[in-house]
Amino acid sequence: MSTQTLNELLLAATECYQLNLTERAENLYAQALRINPRHAGALFNMGTLLLRRGVLKGDALVQDAFALDAGNEIDRNKAVHLLIQIYLAQAYKKHAQVWLEYAAIHQLEIPDFNALKKQIEIPAYLEKTIYSPAQKKQLERYSPIESNSYVYAIDIVGGCNLRCPTCPIGNKDGMAKGLMQKELFANILNKICMESGEYSPDIWLFNWSEPLLNERLPDYIKLIHSAQLTSFVSTNLNITHRINELMQANPTRLKVSISSLKQEIYGITHERGNINTVIANFETLALARDRNKSTTDIWIGHHLYKNTAEEMEQIQALANQFGFGYRPSYAIMAPIEKALSLIEKGDEKPSGIEAQLFFHPNSIVKNVKPKRSGNMDCELRFNMTAINYDGSVSLCCGTTQDLSEKANEKIYFMEHTTSKIEALKYQHSFCTVCIRNNLHLTIQDL
């Protein structure tokens, strides 16, 4: 086959790569490499394509590409920067660490080196390893994915105005209802500040609840900021009142969760919700932000189902219209107990809301198990404490399990030290079940 044919393959492959036609690009690069197995550029691009799919043998191709690149045709600065970003997107933080160290040793110019380093290196407030009595082994930790600070997820409300089918408020009976009182919140916040020392945690004013249902929400935000901590509010924005007061309080971050702009879909995925009310409230929110000169980082969190993903461009345009950010994410089944029940059902054909999930719990288990060694800790355990509206502590933010395994006993945040609460997390038997089914939040390391 002629050199011209090889060049034509490489040109076509590069065009497909740039257009994100990854499968076609892989096929073309494979053809090119059969002609010239030592082509550095083709090896590098093929390697990164594989890494984007989580196939780690792509790393070996990248290393071969660097070794064969005698003419330095590959820009190492851009190449290594790209590799680190790909690994972080795939939650392969340990592998990203290797290339970050490579960049430092070879003095490469990585534009956001310090920011990447912060994403990769374990924060000083965390121990690098922990012994798990339940698993009878030492576990490694990593720089958290959800937040660069320790998180306290405080449900200032027990309950919600909606009944979303992928949330325990909508799919589990017996969820407690109530409002956290201001005195209790202030005491919890003071204890958090005293126990955190020099490290500033991040305060989330929600877990399973709708925080706008608590009329004291603006007061709680002000208390958090008085303590010089960051605040995060997530809302379905079906509630019109208190929006102006919310913007006056100026939370650090605010997410508005939606799934679809079509009421016939939104009314199922956000049951009891009205998308027209939400859209009207977007304008109210934007006006209140501008009127109060709020610096809040506001974005629309788009829950992606199979029947809502086609609306991504439309919802992003709506976000742009009001000066909001746009962050899509795949919808998942919660709590973990519900996901486990679906796994136990086996390979039955899913129906209803389950059929609209991009990642059914069965497929999650199948896909992530080969990528995890079992030696990494769970982030929901080591970097977050979930506190209920009554001041009791949950095992984690992904389950409705109490921290105590004893019947009719609760562990209250104000009555126990941080070290005691952490010790109870690592002794809990439910963690073993969750980890065995690969439903815990951890990085990939295989």
General description of the model:
Helix 1 runs antiparallel to helix 2 and helix 5 (76-89) runs antiparallel to helix 6. The mean pLDDT is 93. 35% of the residues are buried. Strand 6 (202-204), helix 10 (217-226) and strand 7 (230-235) form a beta-alpha-beta unit. A seven-stranded parallel beta sheet has the order 10-9-8-7-6-3-11. A two-stranded antiparallel ribbon has the order 1-2. Strands 4-5 form a two-stranded antiparallel ribbon. 45% of the residues lie in helices and 11% in strands. It has helices at 3-18, 22-35, 40-52, 57-68, 76-89, 93-105, 113-120, 168-171, 182-196, 217-226, 243-249, 263-269, 275-291, 312-321, 336-344, 361-368, 379-382, 418-427, 429-436, and strands spanning 129-132, 137-140, 151-154, 157-158, 178-179, 202-204, 230-235, 253-258, 297-304, 325-330, 384-387. It has 446 residues and is an alpha/beta fold.
